[in-house]
Amino acid sequence: MNNLIQTLIVKYGNVTKTAKAFSVSHTAVVKWKKNGPPLHIALLCHLSEDVPYIFNPSDYGVDNKGLKLNLETTKKVTTNDSIKRV
């Protein structure tokens, strides 16, 4: 069974609740257990602070060189809007 799917089933309680959380069928989650989750589900889990999962592009045949994501944030707010003094 895929580790991510096992993590999700434990987090949500069972396959049915996991399916409901992702708006998919029970059958879809059962297939994920065998074949692994689709790319978009893995990315959603990676971005969620509630799911302890780190996306591995090679699991999906994606070359790391093509991913230019900067997932770091800063506390400084920036904008391209001009400042109008009132």
Automatic annotation (TrEMBL):
Gene Ontology terms, MF aspect: DNA binding
Source species, domain of life: Bacteria
InterPro entries, sorted: Lambda_DNA-bd_dom_sf
Protein name as annotated: Bacteriophage CI repressor helix-turn-helix domain protein
